[in-house]
Design brief:
Helices cover 51% and strands 10% of the residues. It contains 12 helices and 8 strands. The strands form 2 sheets. The chain has a 6-stranded parallel β-sheet, sandwiched between helices. The protein has a two-stranded antiparallel sheet with strand order 3-4.
Length: 304
């Protein structure tokens, strides 16, 4: 298989950002973030941007999809696929290698399983036409467009059937019009559970010491509601509760640490699900640069 993307994924605190930056530096690449929160400006510590890791050997490794929208704006899967597609093609046009990294399972799946990277019009005349067909005809049509359909629940609901057909048809038109299909060589990082828990704890202490609470306070001062903070994820939710005096500092720390550990488990569950759905992932126990580099050089035709 010929690859046109290298992906480094893994649970939070596994070291994937630093590893990806080093690999991108070595292989003349640029990094695309697959993180649903790092798109937001002025939310650096709580989202774990670690931007210093993109500076190597006195130069900056170019990155994409970080700091692109205001906290007040909405960002979703469709916008991610649009931005990813632009960044991906822009990097290829420069004859450089795109590297994708992050921990947002849905965003990673959208790319690695070639979800809806084409723009789909759910209010078109085609939708009205499809609504006239019986469910079994729609199911047949969807399976003809996508014989490897993984989500069989799409076959059980008429509305989902129609949406899935529109997506499949838009994707097939996109490819016919010369839009390159993504083919990723994917490396996964999975440290031992005990080691990961220790890293999560140490990283959380460091971020709290380095101004994460003050970052959340600034967002509140700017007009971000505590309700909206919940939307931004665990760190913002629990620090928001602390700022409202609904939790003591110690309770906030303990509950937040526990929640991040549970989140890391859910991330691994998602990645295993992707594997079951035929996404090959080459797992490493640590974010080791030499091992990852050797793996790419030995398995990935892009670098032969």
């Amino acid at each position: 298989m010929i690859y046109n993307l290298i992906t480094v994924l893994g649970p939070t605190a596994c070291g994937k950002t630093k590893l990806t930056a080093r690999l991108a530096d070595h292989f003349n690449g640029e990094v695309i973030s697959a993180d649903s929160r790092q798109v937001y400006k002025r939310m650096n510590i709580g989202t774990g941007k670690d931007l210093q890791e993109f500076f190597l050997n006195s130069r900056k490794i170019p990155y994409h999809l970080i700091d692109i929208v205001e906290p007040e704006e909405e960002f979703n899967l469709f916008l991610f696929t649009e931005h990813f597609s632009k960044a991906f093609h822009s990097i290829l046009e420069k004859q450089k290698t795109p590297f994708l990294t992050g921990g947002t399972g849905m965003y990673l799946s959208a790319v690695l399983q070639n979800y809806q990277l084409a723009k789909t019009d759910f209010h078109s005349k085609r939708k009205s036409d499809l609504e006239k067909f019986p469910a079994d005809t729609l199911a047949e049509l969807l399976l003809s467009l996508n014989p490897k359909l993984h989500n069989t629940t799409d076959l059980l609901d008429r509305e989902r059937l129609i949406k899935a057909i529109l997506v499949a048809e838009a994707s097939s038109n996109d490819e016919a019009n010369g839009h390159m299909k993504v083919s990723s060589f994917t490396i996964g990082i999975q440290p031992e559970r005990k080691i990961l828990k220790e890293r999560i704890s140490e990283r959380l202490k460091l971020r709290l010491q380095n101004g994460m609470i003050e970052e959340v306070e600034r967002l509140v001062t700017e007009g971000i509601s505590f309700e909206k903070l919940n939307f931004f994820g665990l760190e913002y939710r629990y620090i928001g509760l602390y700022l409202q005096k609904k939790l003591t500092y110690n309770d906030m720390f303990q509950k937040l640490r526990g929640a991040i550990n549970q989140f890391a488990k859910r991330q691994m569950t998602w990645f295993r699900k992707m594997e079951r759905e035929d996404v090959p992932i080459y797992w490493l126990p640590e974010a080791d640069f030499s091992e990852a580099k050797n793996l790419i050089e030995s398995k990935c035709p892009l670098f032969h």
